[in-house]
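Structure first, sequence second, as always.
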């Protein structure tokens, strides 16, 4: 690609992005392809000779787009919906142009320092302790795995040299994200040593049950290593009682990790700061700007109040990476598994500066308001019921019929191409789940999806 071709195609690509962001509704929200269809449409072997740049853009539209499920579509209400905002997209573009690798301070001072600065701003915006150490990982799953590895180091300093002892135990609620269990698998704690603490009627971890489980394990000669609490569980967005959990951890000297991947962002709005109450006592925490802070995937903010322990767990400096010691220069490779590190902070910086705290708080606030108004309509409907409290912008509810009927409603709504809603199981029963996190989604979209849901339910009742 010559510089002239790059310039021309680059302009075309930006034009395409601008049109796309202005109107993602021109595509069905869910990809309408069968598994393998894209693979079959692509050559089985890579090209021997380079192809002209026009082909790349044309084939992006012709082949790739039909296989895209549009997270930027305002009708995307599944999982934890989000959107990659324009400033974030520009940040990604420039980051890939620079192609930096922030493994060491020296390899890229901008990557390391902007990461520290943006995470400091985020700490301030969400009311977290000033002195926490932050770094950006790709995902919350990887961040939580690092939290567990640090907890293992704190509980058993021999683990780094000798491997994971078989008596370490991790505790998390039965509503916690599977990434906690996977992290425990990855670092060798093992699935059998992950205790799933029961939840209360509102899907929050029960501190009494946690304390009992820990004490039972200690009496049996096991060593509690970490508790992972959740602020905004995946299914219902319930918030574990972190202050009480922190008390239990403190009294027993157990590492407390908080998974606030989704709901941590809500604390940017003052009235939702309550969600992070008690987190100041945590040893580590993760929140995902790529979930609910309009930052393109991937960008996961990981904090710890004990960076020395994390460093002890992971610092390993081969000769070819050794640089002069300077306490002012943080080498992020010392604080985790990845050596290479993308310039993720640039897009976060663009997003934070472009919207400001007030702008982001306003978007989040409005999304919560819209979902709360839907929750009220569900409550008022004689044939629908909410299946969980609705603290944020995600609502779980069901038609008062069978699981199959609820699945049918979900499928039919999703077949329209206008919306993508998901489902989950609560108390063993299928429940519809609608999550708003896309900045393009408005009251109108939520009213429309609710009309469709009611219409499908009415057809069932006939
Ligand atoms: N934690 C919670 C509460 C989540 O809801 C999710 C994903 O939805 C994750 C962790 C995993 O996030 P990631 O995809 O960044 O690993």
């Amino acid at each position: 690609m010559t510089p002239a071709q790059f310039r021309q195609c680059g302009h075309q690509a930006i034009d395409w992005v601008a049109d796309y962001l202005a109107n993602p509704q021109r595509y069905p929200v869910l990809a309408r392809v069968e598994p393998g269809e894209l693979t079959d449409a692509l050559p089985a072997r890579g090209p021997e000779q380079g192809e002209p740049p026009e082909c790349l853009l044309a084939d992006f539209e012709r082949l790739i787009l039909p296989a895209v499920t549009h997270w930027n579509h305002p009708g995307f209400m599944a999982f934890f919906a989000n959107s990659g905002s324009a400033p974030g997209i520009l940040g990604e573009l420039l980051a890939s142009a620079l192609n930096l690798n922030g493994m060491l301070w020296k390899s890229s001072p901008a990557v390391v320092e902007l990461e520290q600065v943006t995470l400091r701003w985020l700490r301030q915006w969400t009311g977290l302790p000033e002195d926490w150490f932050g770094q950006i990982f790709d995902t919350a799953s990887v961040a939580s795995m690092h939290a567990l590895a640090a907890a293992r180091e704190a509980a058993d300093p021999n683990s780094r040299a000798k491997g994971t002892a078989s008596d370490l135990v991790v505790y998390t609620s039965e509503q916690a994200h599977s990434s906690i269990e996977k992290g425990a698998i990855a670092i060798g704690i093992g699935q059998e040593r992950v205790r799933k603490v029961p939840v209360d009627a509102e899907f929050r971890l029960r501190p009494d049950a946690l304390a009992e489980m820990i004490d039972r394990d200690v009496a049996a000669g096991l060593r509690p290593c970490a508790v992972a609490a959740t602020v905004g569980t995946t299914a219902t967005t319930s918030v574990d009682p972190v202050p009480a959990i922190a008390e239990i951890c403190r009294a027993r000297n157990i590492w407390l990790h908080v998974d606030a991947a989704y709901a941590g962002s809500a604390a940017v709005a003052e009235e939702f700061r309550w969600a992070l109450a008690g987190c100041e006592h945590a040893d580590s925490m993760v929140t995902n700007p790529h979930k609910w802070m309009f930052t393109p995937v991937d960008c996961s903010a990981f904090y710890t109040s004990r960076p020395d322990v994390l460093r002890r767990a992971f610092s390993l400096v081969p000769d070819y990476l050794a640089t002069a010691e300077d306490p002012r220069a943080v080498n992020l490779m010392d604080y985790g598994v990845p050596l290479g590190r993308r310039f993720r902070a640039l897009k976060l910086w663009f997003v934070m500066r472009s919207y400001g705290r007030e702008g982001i708080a306003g978007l989040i606030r409005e999304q919560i308001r819209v979902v709360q108004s839907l929750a009220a309509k569900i409550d008022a409907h004689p044939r629908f019921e909410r299946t969980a409290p609705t603290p944020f912008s995600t609502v779980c509810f069901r038609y008062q019929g069978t699981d199959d009927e609820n699945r049918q409603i979900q499928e039919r709504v999703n077949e329209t191409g206008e919306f993508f809603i998901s489902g989950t199981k609560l108390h063993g029963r299928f429940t519809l789940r609608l999550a708003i996190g896309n900045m393009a989604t408005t009251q109108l979209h939520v009213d429309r999806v609710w009309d469709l849901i009611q219409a499908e339910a009415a057809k069932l009742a006939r």
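Margin note: The first helix runs from residue 3 to 22.
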